[in-house]
Amino acid sequence: MTGTLRAGPDFRVEQAGGFFVLRARLLDLPGFRHAFTTRQYPDGDPGALRALGFDPLRVVEAEQVHGARVVAVRGNCGQRVAGADGLWTDRAGLVLKVRSADCLAVLVVDPQKSRVAAVHAGWRGLAAGVLSRTVRALRGAGSRPEELRCAVGPAIGACCYEVDEPVREALGRWPQAFRPGRPGHWQLDLREVGRAQLLAEGVRPEHLASCEACTACEPEWFYSYRREGRSGTLWALVSREDGR
């Protein structure tokens, strides 16, 4: 890759196993691992997962149906959880994984209760409250929202995400996320909707980090469904290490 990625102050870019990934500084906590991949990431390569510090035999994925179902993971290594867009676990060594190509990929760590979560959130999932439900699921298991650390990975920015009236109506509870575009259309800031949902559930502002890069603006770094149509996918992964 030849260009410099401007991910913002909350994220850093580094090499692992010879390819570039993004890390959220907020999630650099003892006993936890995480990564947001770039389009350089060789999907399906167990060696690449090991280079990131993850056991490829203990990965659990969400099916991702653009809904708001959040599932507690106790096992299911190597499987995809049907009907889920959010996963959480308190089991050491399990690797939670979600994919994106413009939508939000959100990783959550509770350093006090040793829990992690991974969530896929497109506009439909946000309209259904998938991030709110994630925080509530963790709270129901004993986590305190003010202790959660949440990182939003690279996603399409308002600069490139034009939506129509049905989307604006579906997300009408968050008018601050829209700015006028051409007639009958608006530019949507998905990250603002995600941020608003997390803050409303009690996540502290200083415990919320967002990557500033737009997936549609950075073809060298990211896949983008809006830019490319059918494309590859970016991955967000998080795990609690054994011994926590």
Topology:
Layout: E1 11-16, E2 19-24, E3 32-37, H1 46-51, E4 59-62, E5 70-72, E6 80-81, E7 86-89, E8 95-100, E9 104-110, E10 115-121, H2 123-127, H3 130-140, E11 149-152, E12 162-164, H4 165-170, E13 178-180, E14 185-188, H5 190-200, E15 208-210, H6 225-228, E16 234-240
Parallel strand pairs: 4-6, 4-8, 5-7, 11-15
Antiparallel strand pairs: 1-2, 2-3, 3-16, 7-10, 8-16, 9-10, 9-11, 12-14, 13-14
Report on this structure.
The strands form three sheets. This protein has a seven-stranded mixed β-sheet with strand order 1-2-3-16-8-4-6, with no helix packed on it. Strands 5-7-10-9-11-15 form a six-stranded mixed β-sheet. It has a three-stranded antiparallel β-sheet with strand order 12-14-13. The protein has 244 residues and is of the alpha+beta class. The chain has a single domain (11-156, 205-240), classed as 4-Layer Sandwich (CNF1/YfiH-like putative cysteine hydrolases), CATH 3.60.140. The longest helix is centred in the middle third of the chain and has 11 residues, at 130-140. It has six helices and 16 strands.
CATH superfamily: CNF1/YfiH-like putative cysteine hydrolases
Q: How many domains would you count in the coordinates?
A: 1
Give the CA-based shape: globular
Strand order of the largest sheet: 1-2-3-16-8-4-6
* Helical content class: 10-25%
Run of helices and strands = EEEHEEEEEEEHHEEHEEHEHE
**Distance linking N and C termini:** 36 Å
